[in-house]
Amino acid sequence: MRKDIHPNYQDVLFHDTNADVFFLTRSTVKTKATREYEGTEYPYYPLDISSASHPFYTGEQRKTSTEGRVASFNKRFGAFGGRSKKAADSAE
């Protein structure tokens, strides 16, 4: 193999912040943060989601809001849908 063309492959501590679970595995990810885990300091990389918190792996559905998708869509884009009542009345 040629020298100096491969990224640094090292032990990295991944943290699923959603489930508060730590994973120690080897990776080429570059990070400046470090954290101590089981008495040894490792490069640290936080994750939003992993197999510990993803609904496909956990079997749990997490509802992020109490309103439905249609209500949320109408709330955001309802003003753009068609002519307003004033424009409809003046066209008659």
Automatic annotation (TrEMBL):
One MF annotation (Gene Ontology) recorded for this entry: structural constituent of ribosome
Keywords, sorted A to Z: Ribonucleoprotein, Ribosomal protein
GO-annotated biological processes: translation
GO CC annotation: ribonucleoprotein complex; ribosome
Pfam families xrefs: Ribosomal_L31
Keyword Ribosomal protein applies: yes
Top-level taxonomic group: Bacteria
PROSITE patterns named in the record: RIBOSOMAL_L31
Subunit annotation: Part of the 50S ribosomal subunit.
Family: Belongs to the bacterial ribosomal protein bL31 family. Type B subfamily.
The protein's name in its UniProt record: Large ribosomal subunit protein bL31B
Species for this entry: Psychrobacter aquaticus CMS 56
